[in-house]
Specification:
The chain contains 4 helices and 5 strands. With 181 residues, it is of the alpha+beta class. It is globular, with a radius of gyration of 18 Å.
């Protein structure tokens, strides 16, 4: 019988930080997102052949999807570090509501900033990825977040976007859109 060739493994997306740092950050992000429970998937990035399967079992995400998720988490970490470096205080990350998810909620003096992070292969591609429908979901989720935090009602509100791409500095776009979308 002829020996069957194995398909070549999926190569993970290029990252913006060293692989050891990604594993630590992903593990920390997942622990926060799961309330301390351990999640299986992108947190296994540092192990040999982690996330690489010949085929996905039914109900399991494809390897390319796991790599994209890992890149998204890395992009959010880069964006949070950029905002902290600019003097912003991070109030929440990956906050979920029935309307959608807000990547980062930050505060700078008397302004609450809702930040959408887009990571793509190029900054231009990331900029075009923020669609009007997605803006509406972010605005609705921001309203839900503010309703849950009445202590912040008197503050100004702003919607920013941070674009992240490999081999490029992240780009912060303050007031990228407003309540009108």
């Amino acid at each position: 019988m002829a020996e069957r060739k194995r398909p070549s493994p999926v190569t993970p997306a290029r990252t913006l930080v060293k692989p050891g740092d990604i594993k630590a950050q992903l593990t920390a992000d997942q622990a926060v997102a799961s309330g301390g429970r351990r999640l299986v998937g992108p947190g296994e990035v540092g192990k040999p052949d982690a996330g690489r399967r010949e085929s996905s079992a039914p109900g399991e995400p494809a390897p390319a999807r796991l790599a994209a998720h890992g890149f998204g988490l890395s992009a959010e970490s880069v964006a949070a570090a950029l905002l902290v470096g600019k003097g912003y205080r991070i109030l929440a990350r990956r906050w979920r509501s029935p309307f959608g998810e807000i990547d980062i909620v930050a505060r700078n003096r008397s302004t609450v900033i809702f930040v959408e992070v887009k990571g793509r292969g190029a900054l231009d591609d990331a900029a075009y990825a923020v669609t009007p429908r997605q803006r509406r979901r972010i605005i609705d989720a921001a309203s839900a977040w503010l309703a849950a935090r009445p202590d912040l009602n008197g503050l100004d509100v702003r919607f920013d976007v941070v674009l992240v791409a490999p081999r490029s500095l992240p780009r912060h776009i303050p007031a990228a859109f407003d309540i009108d979308g």
